[in-house]
Amino acid sequence: MADARFGLDRKITLPGPLALDGGGVLAPVEIAYESYGTLNADGSNAILLCHALTGDQYVASTHPITGKPGWWTRMVGPGKPIDTNRYCVICPNVVGSCMGSSGPESLGPDGKPFAMRFPVITIRDMVRAQALLLDHLGIEALYAVVGGSMGGMQALTWAATYPTRVRAALVIASTARHSAQNIAFHEVGRQAIMADPNWRGGDYYHDGQAPDAGLAVARMAAHITYLSEHGLTEKFGRRLQDRSAKTFGFDADFQVESYLRYQGLSFTGRFDANSYLYITRAMDYFDLAEDHGGHLANAFRGSATRFCAVSFDTDWLYPTSESRNIVHALNAGGAPVSFMELSAPFGHDSFLLDVPELDRVVDGFLTAGGL
Amino acid sequence: MTLRPDLAIIAREIAPGSRVLDVGCGDGALMAALRDQKQADARGMELDRDNVTACVARGLSVIQGNADTDLADYPDAAFDYAILSQTLQTTMRPDLVLDQLLRIGRMAFVSFPNFAQWRIRMALMFGGTMPVTKQLPARWYDTPNIHHVTIDDFRKYIAERGIRIEGQWFLRGEKLISAGAANLRAEHAVFLLTR
Hints:
The complex is a heterodimer. Chain A is an alpha/beta fold. Helices cover about 30% and strands about 15% of the residues of chain A. Chain A is globular. Chain A starts with 9 loop residues before the first strand and ends with a helix. The model of chain A has no long low-confidence stretch (mean pLDDT about 95). By secondary structure, chain B is of the alpha/beta class. The longest helix of chain B has 11 residues, at about 95-105. Chain B starts with a helix and ends with a strand. Chains A and B meet through α8, β12 and α9 of A and α3 and β3 of B.
């Protein structure tokens, strides 16, 4: 008989309460998730996949809003590096997000959307919510936790918070703390949203007049940080958009402008502005060392978890130095760790794109766990 | 798979269950042997990305890094053995790398090609050009070996620094040879050092 807890487009409401780092409590806790593959009899083949800031649980299935393929179909599926013939892959939507898990769009106790009454959450809160989900699914320990970017922050936090529940952690294009530059870019995005007259302190759900212009600008600014200068130059250069000469106006003369506008606009169709505020805040608050007496090594001391950190040479959002910082701490803590900087032209987004070397590393590292 | 002769010596000498750091671990052949035959907790560092990827794919914990700059990241006495096989002569500052090895490991294995072996001397003396041999196949302009060293140079340096030699092995081809006139006869040397 099929277990209704597993499969595509699942959603569970757990009673909680989830005690939050900020002092509040979340109850109940809604978690939307998908699973791929089958959990084996002793529950030893579960891989938790953690998504990035604007990602979601639709990792390898069609996105219900955009109709596009899942965000990591190149990596997850039968015969893929994260092989769903071998592993049971669980991908939950993070709390604070807008794809079915508890977030500002969810209804509060008064039946109205929380909006800005939703508690400020942290990466560790996201992880604790995921732990509740695993309890519900009957998964005691993870074969591996895998994540890129903000997903990597969750993977690190998993290993630090529940060391006995994580056998391996794969951290891709990520960091153990948000830098001043990271925070600065996020603040630009948040201010763009909050400056939109439609934002109205976050209360915009009732009339459908969402702060789309502000959210689009936030996305445009962020999108630049996901690419490399070389990638932008190669893709767009100074080429003009559907015209032979400059218009001496403020239309999208350049292809790169047109592209960013499209990216911004299409993002507003699938993402909630308040969720963007909450999740970027969670990332800015992330500093794993701070939670461990200021020493990152303490977060992993004596850990039996196998780690692998991967960075990309063109990623200036979470550059190689951030991964090295993680590796340094893991070494100091004596944890088994591998690290490599891969070469790819796509900047931070490389972890989502066609980088065959990443496939080899992911496959090799996971297989080495000896399922 | 057969290990390179210097690695075979190191693999034989290492005590079972040791914690080992292999600096310049290549494709991980020695680490895999130590893990499988000596139940060692082996970690590696390697410059070449393809080698690192290959190591990870065989289940080894290897960090992409540079012996000259990245050894400083390891805590003191974190390992029973630090190994530097055929890498010393490629580093920017072999002296500082040796210091790091002996700080990180209780003991250090160091192996290197002997630049004073008679064939090399002959080539230089009669050819008048930088020797290209089976052991040192690169030419002067593309060699990674930027600090050629002889067995006598090495011994002298070790003595000056008060480093103790716990063991030494000399190779001609695949064959272990005696220590007599090793500086003239040996193609490779392996030293086990401690502070």
